[in-house]
């Protein structure tokens, strides 16, 4: 059982955000994911602000959006015109951005503020489903381009105090991200490699019998998991989970375990 203290902290959520803008364009392969995002939102309380760690932003050091009114970055191609007309006018939060900057600096993590960078689809796609009014201030945090898992866990640990301030933390990526496999295989066919990795990931994140140190070691060495590189030829969609784990400090709860684009995909809540 989690302590009362943990219950009072803001949630930390790792979610899939789907394929580009498709969840906002009525794509049937994303319906279960959309239903989940709508269902989980009322359980997250009333956040004062939202921090998103998106798979779609990498920098040489941990970088934070600090603009007051970030624009949207339509970081995808080949979609209908409506995909480039999506609006999500959520305000930024320079105050939260500076707080994140200070926490990272104090933990010895190289960081910088960027008041020009907008919000990519790792933010506006899920949040338009979850918080369609777009009134909650948002900040985005980049991945570090080394893609080192231990670095991203350390970033999460450095930011744990945000959970005491009603900041909702969302890692936006996917537990499965092999586009070649998605588009070359029958979406109804079972994928044993996908299932094996998902089973490993679910056990690693949720098994209360695994010690904190062992859980961290397993996530640092995630590429040793069954079919890890099949599920993540490149790990940028997995690493937001490592930041979430660093902030979560305990076993997670499995809150989504279903198919997105025919592949088993998981979401976790701390």
Q: Can you walk through the features of this model?
A:
The chain has a single domain (4-269), classed as 3-Layer(aba) Sandwich (Protocatechuate 4,5-dioxygenase, Chain B), CATH 3.40.830.10. Helix 5 (149-158) runs parallel beside helix 10. Residues 1-6 have low confidence and may be disordered. 46% of the residues are buried. 34% of the residues lie in helices and 20% in strands. It has ten helices and eight strands. The radius of gyration is 17 Å and the shape is globular. It has 270 residues and is an alpha/beta fold. It has helices at residues 4-8, 31-40, 94-106, 121-130, 149-158, 179-184, 192-206, 212-220, 228-231, 239-248; strands at residues 12-16, 49-59, 62-65, 111-114, 138-144, 167-173, 253-260, 263-269. The strands form two sheets. Strands 5-2-6-1-8-7 form a six-stranded mixed sheet, with helices on both faces. The two termini are 12 Å apart.
Summarize this entry quickly:
This protein has helices at residues 4-8, 31-40, 94-106, 121-130, 149-158, 179-184, 192-206, 212-220, 228-231, 239-248, and strands spanning 12-16, 49-59, 62-65, 111-114, 138-144, 167-173, 253-260, 263-269. By secondary structure, it is α/β, with parallel strands linked by helices.
Q: What fraction of the residues are assigned to beta strands by DSSP?
A: 15-25%
How many structural domains can be distinguished in the coordinates? 1
Number of helices: 10
- The run of helices and strands is HEHEEHEHEHEHHHHHEE
Mean pLDDT comes to 96
What general outline do the C-alpha atoms trace?
globular
Helix share bin: 25-40%
Global structural class: alpha/beta
* CATH homologous superfamily grouping: LigB-like
Largest sheet, in brief, is: 6 strands, mixed
Q: Tell me the span between the first and last alpha carbons.
A: 12 Å
Low-confidence stretches: 1-6
**Strand tally:** 8
Name of the CATH class: Alpha Beta
What is the spatial order of strands in the main beta sheet?
5-2-6-1-8-7
The value of Rg in angstroms is: 17 Å
CATH fold category name: Protocatechuate 4,5-dioxygenase, Chain B
Tell me the CATH architecture: 3-Layer(aba) Sandwich
